[in-house]
Amino acid sequence: MCKYSLIIVVLLCFNLSKLNAQDYKKDSLQFKVITHIKYANNTAEKIVLKKVICDYCTDVQTEALGQQALKIAKEEQEDPKNRKQNGIKILSIYIRLSKKDFAALNK
């Protein structure tokens, strides 16, 4: 009897965690932002925002997402998997926001 109780508890916990994950997906928006990092002699010289992919963003929201992506790209420039000896590294950055936070960007 104890084995069955344990199995039932584990299954219930698993199902509850799946429900919480689905709520998160319903309540959030995901945006893709493309940046370029120019490297020369294994050193980042310049970070450029190329595109904010959002069909329904206002100019203020697009600007805020772009600024956040530039901050993330600046942090990622020293990561060994992103570094290049010479050339341009293209970073696709995904930003996830709740609908409430996204609407607050207009204010």
How would you describe the overall organization of this protein?
It contains 3 helices and 3 strands. With 107 residues, the protein is of the alpha+beta class. A 3-stranded antiparallel sheet has the order 2-1-3. The longest helix is centred in the N-terminal third of the chain and has 25 residues, at 2-26.
Strand numbers in spatial order across the main sheet? 2-1-3
Percentage of residues in strands: 25-35%
Low-pLDDT ranges: none
Radius of gyration from CA coordinates: 20 Å
Task: Bin the helical content.
Answer: 40-55%
The topology string of helices and strands comes to: HEEHEH
Largest sheet: 3 strands, antiparallel
Helix run count: 3
Q: Find the count of extended strands (DSSP E, 2+ residues).
A: 3
Overall form: flat
Average of per-residue pLDDT values:
82
In short:
The chain has 107 residues and is α+β, with helices and mostly antiparallel strands. 46% of the residues lie in helices and 34% in strands.
Annotation keywords:
3 strands; 107 residues; signal; single chain; alpha+beta; three-stranded antiparallel beta sheet
Please specify the SSE layout and strand pairing.
Elements: H1 2-26, E1 28-40, E2 43-53, H2 59-76, E3 87-98, H3 99-104
Antiparallel strand pairs: 1-2, 1-3
